[in-house]
Design brief:
Layout: E1 2-3, E2 6-7, E3 14-20, E4 27-31, H1 38-51, E5 65-71, E6 97-107, E7 110-118, H2 126-143
């Protein structure tokens, strides 16, 4: 994380993700720590999303977030998130943004899914994104 003239290591990031309530076309942003098993986290996220009655909780907005979003309706090839690059603090924005699209068949009983990763290049290079992609592939393969 970048703050002022300093770079600080974060031990963990807090997921902040978009969700649609059943029957709605308006998304909202749910922010909560990732704790327990994936099943426990997913159930807690469903419960928090169902109980949330606002677009986002401003008290949950912190430096140690990681933004997630999904576009399951399209085969994602590229995406740029909204942000005001003219703002004085824009160069210090250290919140990673990860978005994925729908799964598309690619033959041989395989599917592909496009992913967009936006990071602050002052902190992360392509080699780090490559390491992330390999680790993510291993996690996805382990789900099968």
């Amino acid at each position: 994380m970048i703050r002022g003239d300093g770079v600080y290591r974060l031990e963990r990031r807090i997921p902040s993700f978009t969700d649609l309530k059943k029957g709605s076309e308006l998304f909202h942003i749910v922010t909560m720590p990732c704790e327990g098993s994936i099943e426990t986290f997913c159930q807690a996220a469903r419960d928090r999303s169902a109980a949330q009655d606002c677009f986002f909780d401003p008290n949950a907005e912190r430096d140690h977030l990681i933004y997630f979003s999904c576009l399951p309706w399209i085969d994602l090839t590229a995406l740029t998130n909204e942000r005001d690059l003219s703002a004085p603090q824009a160069k210090d924005d250290s919140v990673p943004r990860i978005v994925w699209g729908r799964f598309t068949p690619s033959g041989d009983d395989r599917s592909e899914m496009g992913i967009s990763v936006e990071v602050n290049h002052r902190l992360i290079d392509g080699v780090h994104i490559g390491m992330f992609a390999k680790a993510l592939s291993r996690l996805i393969d382990a789900l099968a």
